[in-house]
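FORM 7B - TANDEM STRUCTURE REPORT

SECTION 1: FIRST PROTEIN
SEQUENCE AND TOKENS:
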Amino acid sequence: MHLHEQLARYGSLTLSHEELLTLILNLTPDDPASRMQVARLLRERGFRGVMCAEVGELCEDYGCSPALAARLVALAELYHRVATLSEELPMSIHCVEDAARLVLPSMSHLDYEQLRVLLLDTSNHVQANLVLYQGTLNELSARVAEVFRPAITRKAAAIIICHNHPSGNPEPSTEDLLFTRNLIEARDLLGIAVQDHLIIAGGGYRSALAALLRVTRKQDRTAATPLQLEPERDETIFVGTDATHTADEAATASFYHSIGKDGEA
């Protein structure tokens, strides 16, 4: 059965990434080299890696023809443009998944670290979705004021910080937790609520704020001075799933329910 027949009869979900690319790029059995190159790309880089590839590296590193490389990059550009449609404003944030849905399409595929801030008004509406920084979060830790500056100038009631881990592991690092704690301390001075700090990776997300609450509870029990991340079960959340909410997620959710009431978490 041909791929187009399989799609028509059983639906697109029955096709693998490789089969979808084969169908979209119109790779025929008469062109086995191109099919092998696409298969190698997916095997070595994964789908997100293919969506970040450049024409030069596709030709030089994977032996793609200029025409095939151009089609792949054009497909990637279309993918990125469609992804940005989910960022159209206005929209309201009622829970952590709403915030994750807004940034996942744009951030989960990146091979470099990016930090964004969502600015919210007192009615939970997203005023802006801003890229603040690209690089490593460590370099931004000393400049917390830069995160709050757009919120101050636009008179936002609250912010949600989002950054990605290109490694694909959404587990908050010690640096992520320290950065989150610095944001919370600045919030107390500025009166702008920090509703969450989301770590985006591997198609899912984790709440650094929930992790910080967990660490704080542990320190309260042990009187430990260093900030250390407590090993826990995998709590990565994938948007669209019916994962059971943990106690930490429930605690974090309370921050969202408070938006628009008193302006503070």
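SECTION 2: SECOND PROTEIN
SEQUENCE AND TOKENS:
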Amino acid sequence: MGRVRPPHDGESLGEYLTAHGITHFSEREVRTARRANVIGLPPRVLWRNIIVPCRLGEALRRLAGCPLVVGNGYRDAAVNATVGGAPRSRHVAFAALDLDVPRSRRPALSAGHYNRLAARVWLEHAEDLDIGLGLYTSGHRIHIDHRPGRGPAYWSRPLVEPVFADVLGCSRAALRRMSRRQMSRQYRRHEGPA
């Protein structure tokens, strides 16, 4: 996914995103905690954390063939508690995005297809990056994050496992016997880059 450098003195967050090839997610979007209707400013020391989720979002956008809307980006600890976020939420570390399919595009991009595309992006990169994926019952929102040193992860097992099994062409029982990195290797071996 490429190198991530620290921000330069005087560089805005928008300039920093652009310098890392992030063209479809604005500074305002990645700073938004939509449910709380808040736009926070993450400390500069956290800016590096958002680059991998944004790059994953760019890859998902290419596959989906439509714009994606940031439902949640940065949330400080107080906002995270207000919206009922997990105590160790990667949003607080500015290392997570919730990405929604715009309502106008939902008839053309089914929830199931969007979830399969998100699974493909996760499988493509999980062997090399410590990333997380979460699916929501609404079907048109996914969560992606970067979790250095914690290994690749996914949650919402009842939602995620059938999608991964479908993408990998295996049973859920076979899927449960694989490590996250084995799943990624199997995908890359059979499917190639997303």
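SECTION 3: OBSERVATIONS ON SECOND PROTEIN
The chain has one domain: 13-191.
Residues 111-125 form the longest helix (15 residues).

SECTION 4: SIGNATURE
Preparer initials: ____
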